[in-house]
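Please check both lines for our workbook:

___
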Amino acid sequence: MNYLAHSVISLEIDKKMSESTLYGNFAGDFYKGKVDKIDLQENLKNGIILHRLIDKISDREENFLNELLREKFRIFKGIVSDMYVDHFLCKNFENIFCENPGFENVEKVERKIIKNIEKYDEFFPSDFKSFFDWLKREKVLARYKNLDFLERVFLGMSKRVRKGEILRNAVCELRRNYGKFEEKSLREFLFVKKEAEREFGLVEINKNT
């Protein structure tokens, strides 16, 4: 799961459970170590817990996309899977959330996410701020559905990770098997969303007993 998927799972959980998971879930990759040792106000740490739950579920070997990605992308299959899921989530956003008030379109939801994250700018890790400024400026979350933009993102990623050149082929591979990837990506998102909500609910029950 990438940033759009993490965010919409948080938005639904926060609404259902009166939580404040969005910031910690969105910025979760920028916080390392044990959650109870992280210097962040307590009510925001649940977002980091949720972020790690989502990553744990999507990193499972049975990820629905793995059979199509394992051979070609090997250790990078998780990165490619995350980006494909956000692409198809963005593309099909209105259909997936048509019965969810406040989720009328992905552009509106992106603005809501950005506004919510900005409220916590005093807590931004230094390396998160520049990333968030880029993401906000480029309207990244709502542009994931654009394949040319997605290709630019993969190109940038390929330059930042060791032996990442293979990521430059990700959009070409996506175009080649577009229908299969769409079906499996949406299936993966809905599975992870359901499991994350269930496991996060159990975490909250255990904390309160």
Observations:
- The chain has a mean pLDDT of 94.
- The two ends are 30 Å apart (CA to CA).
- Residues 3-208 form one domain.
- The CA atoms of residues 49 and 100 lie 25 Å apart.
